[in-house]
Amino acid sequence: MSAARPDRADEPALEAGLERSRGGFMARLHRLLGRDTLDEATWEEIEEALIAGDVGAALAARVVAAARRRRDGLPPEAAVRAELRALLAPREADWEPSSAVAGQPLPVLVVGVNGTGKTTSIAKLTARLEGRGRRVLLAAADTFRAAATEQLRAWAERLDVPVVAHHPGADPAAVVYDALDAASARGLDVVIVDTAGRLHTKVNLMDELAKMRRVIDRRLPGARPEVLLVLDATTGQNGLHQARAFHRAVELTGVVLAKLDSTAKGGIVFAVEDELKVPVRFVGVGERLGDLVPFDPDAFIEALFAPGEAAR
Amino acid sequence: MFDALSTRLRETLARLTGRGRVAEADVEAAMREVRLALLEADVNYRVAKEFVARVRERAVGAEVLGSLTAGQQVVKIVHEELTALLSAGDRTLHLSGSPAVVALLGLQGSGKTTSAAKLARHLVHQGRRPMLVAADPYRPAAVEQLVTLGRQLDVPVHRAPPGTGVLETARGGIHVAREQGRDVVILDTAGRHTVDPVLMEEIATLVAATRPAETLLVLDAMTGQEAVNVAEAFRAAVPLTGLLLTKIDGDARGGAALSISAVTGLPVKLMGTGEKTDALELFHPDRLAGRILGMGDVLTLVERAQEAYDEKQAAKVAEKLRRSTFGLDDFLDQLQQVKKMGPLGQLLEMLPGMGGLAKEAQASVDRGELKRIEAIISSMTREERGDPGILNASRRRRIAAGSGTTLTDVNRLVKQFGEMQKLMRRFGGSGGRGAVPFGRQGGARR
Ligand SMILES: Nc1nc2c(ncn2[C@@H]2O[C@H](COP(=O)(O)OP(=O)(O)O)[C@@H](O)[C@H]2O)c(=O)[nH]1
Ligand SMILES: [Mg+2]
Fold first, then answer.
1. All CATH 3.40.50.300 domain ranges in chain B, comma separated
2. Rounded distance, CA B282 to CA B267, Å?
3. What is the helix (H) or strand (E) element at residue A115, kind and residue range?
4. Which residues of chain B lie closer than 8 angstroms to A51, CB-CB?
5. B305-434 has which CATH code?
6. Which helix (H) or strand (E) holds B157?
7. Ligand 1 pocket test: which of A8, A120, A228, A283 has the largest number of ligand atoms within 8 Å of its C-beta?
8. Residue A212 has pLDDT above 70, yes or no
9. Kindly report the CA angle at B218 between B215 and B223, in degrees rounded to 5?
């Protein structure tokens, strides 16, 4: 079915991708930022670097203004870091998805626009959960895209986990329903629902998603499902629009930032977390099963300022 | 949010009502907003900076032409400059060679496979005989996805047994195409990112060996500031001939494409506008220019409408609009046409000032409100339909009862219609590009 990727260095997945080749998007300012006081032009450059990292023009201006206003004697770089850190939503350390009701499976609904990395992230998440002794069932609720079910099945085979699927074009909510039943009957721990990619502006498709969520809430009352938005790290300002719309439709509990192994910056997560208070839970750093890393806010910020190999 | 932004831009420009020459202070205020609009649209920050500098230079002291205001004159310059940037290069698809090879490449998830199928369909409609080649052996079920799409379109798909190298697969496909008299081969390649040296080498070899007539970078319209680096890196590996911009049917403003065209001179050749295989359009620079600024685009609307209408009908509507005899019957007709033409939201978003309304209108079509509207209108007398102005309270109550709806429904429809009528009269009268609707005439918002 799918061949192994051409050989590549087996770097540890934990080295978050963005550190690797070019350094974080703030790295080029490292030298400038090191000084004790900065001139106007330098502050402007900081703002530009933030914009270049997809933080967004308005938020970048806010961060810089706040950093400049600080009177706690922090040097400029530390002040900018602190302001960025403050944008990230609070979260518990060592979070792992777990069921709110004993003896009942945890539903995980995975949503996002087309091609962000939902199915792949689900495979990785499954590998992670299974590795921790949790038993996972996958629900192939992308009944729309050609061969989407085959894609999920291919991963499931590799992972040796069960899949519930219907025929192409079937009602995705019915798939969800059956998957929850199957998992409950077999006493499994987690049901991960793979949904079709959809643009957040398509009202009927967002309604369809809300319906899937309602099926979960009705079938497993009190379950507190995880609803994860998969954002592509190369996404620009549209990412915030996506997050808002999905949050409105299905009430997100977390974000997976996929493809951070590319040269992408992922700066849009600051706006998303700041506005919606939905935490990034995982970061995707490659296409292999091991390439999913829990999101650590401090490490993320550290990596933004870390010089790349070229600069080392 | 982008609605808010373009509203602010519109307001800033509306304040510039002066005539004669454009004043420097005016330009400063406008350029601040233009810069923000560009950045919000994901235009590369360097490109935005240079762009604003260039427009500023052209705008300060520029003569305000004809009946325009200073604000409109600035918009005109901005729009012209944006369009010029987006008009880079040669936008025609060149399909020389037998067979002609078209290679699609790009980042993971940018939309290559779907675009390959759309392109195949597009070419079939032009009388070509394309063949698809599944050259993504890595992503699980990528080959199956292409095979399924090919089957739906009745276009043959060449696939190689697992373990076959990408180059061999492509060569095999070209060979089979030649034997079967297929004149275009579309290569669907695996997604890759530019810092992966092995896969970049692979694509370079593939392109060098198959010598495509077109090598298109498939770019997600939602791409952020990284777009330019991505294009530059692909261009360093292979001789790109253009871009195929995908997922433009959402609310992404597509500034990434502008950045790439500005920096590399690569033209956008095609645009993906939906998930179905018929959703592929030729690229129109002035439309994307309007979209990037959130200005909307009347031209597109007019053209689309023309595709769905026959010309006589269009002429009739235009005439009615001119004479303001556009009644509720015509309104219903319009709604039904719009439904036929595709997502209403997409269409309305092209109208200036309609961003917010678009979503609601789409929602109402989606929720089946069209049926209710039909019921209400068919409960009216002919006279009422022709001139809703005569709908007093008792008539409205009668209509509500007759159509099984509520008075609120009827009131809402009449109000909506009134707004639409106003809007349409404005477009009907303005006759196209010149009157980019900024300024006091604003948009119909709710
Ligand atoms: N480099 C990289 N590629 C990824 C990552 N996650 C997903 N992909 C790739 O992105 C493409 C789209 O992924 P898919 O899971 O099918 O997206 P979906 O449409 O959202 O389900 C595939 O080629 C995946 O291999 C990631 O973290 N890094
Ligand atoms: Mg998928």
1. 100-292
2. 12
3. none
4. 39, 45, 225
5. 1.10.260.30
6. strand B157-158
7. A120
8. yes
9. 145
First to last CA, chain A: 41
Residues of A in contact with B245 (CB under 8 A): none
Domain with CATH 1.10.260.30 in chain B: 305-434
Give the domain B3-85 fold.
Four Helix Bundle (Hemerythrin (Met), subunit A) (1.20.120)
CATH architecture of B100-292: 3-Layer(aba) Sandwich (3.40)
Q: Does A291 touch chain B (CB under 8 A)?
A: no
What's the sign of the alpha-carbon dihedral B410, B412, B416, B418? positive
Query: Closest by alpha carbon to A48, among B171, B288, B91, B48?
Result: B48
Query: How many Å apart are CA A5 and CA B136, to the nearest integer?
Result: 11
Q: Could you give the ipTM of this predicted complex?
A: 0.90
- What does pTM read for this prediction? 0.79
Each residue's pLDDT tens digit, B232-264: 999 999 999 999 999 998 888 889 999 999 999
- The answer to whether the Cα torsion of B58, B59, B60, B62 is positive or negative is positive
What is the mean pLDDT of the segment spanning A172-200? 97
B264-305 pLDDT tens trace: 999 999 999 999 999 999 998 887 887 787 665 433 443 444
Which stretches of B273-388 are assigned E, i.e. beta strand?
A: 280-282
Angle at the Cα of A45 from the Cα atoms of B46 and B261, rounded to 5 degrees: 10
Q: Domains of chain A by range and CATH? A: 10-90 (1.20.120.140), 106-296 (3.40.50.300)
CATH 1.20.120.140 domain extents, chain B: 3-85
Which residues make Cβ contacts (< 8 Å) with residue B246, sequence separation at least 6? B110, B111, B114, B115, B218, B219, B220, B221, B271, B272
- A260-274, pLDDT tens digit by residue? 998 778 999 999 999
Q: How many whole angstroms from B13 Cα to the centroid of ligand 1?
A: 42
Q: What are the backbone angles phi and psi of residue A307, rounded to the nearest 5°?
A: -70, 145
Report which of B440, B82, B144, B96 is spatially closest to residue B293, judged by C-alpha positions: B82
What angle, rounded to 10 degrees, do the helices at B328-341 and B369-378 form?
160
